[in-house]
Amino acid sequence: MDESLDAPAQKTLDDLLELVSFTDLKSRLEVVRRFPAHYEDEHDEMLAEVVRQVRPYLRNVIGVTIGKGGQGKTTLSANMAGMLAAEQEKLAKQGKKALPILHLELDLQGDGLSHDFGLARSKFNDKGAGLASAVTNDAPLHVIKTDRQFLHVVPAGANNARITDALGALVATHGRAAHLLLALLLAQISHLYRWIVIDFSPGDRSLQQLGLAAATHLTAPLMDSDNASVSGLANLAVLARSTRKTNPELGVAAMCFLGFRKVQGQPTSDLTIVWEKLRMALQRHNVSPDVILEDYVREGRVLAKEARNSGMLAHEFAMAATGQWIDPLTGEVAERPRDESGRLIDAKRAIELANDHAAMTRAVITRVRARNQQLKEATA
Question: Global pTM?
Answer without folding.
Answer: 0.94
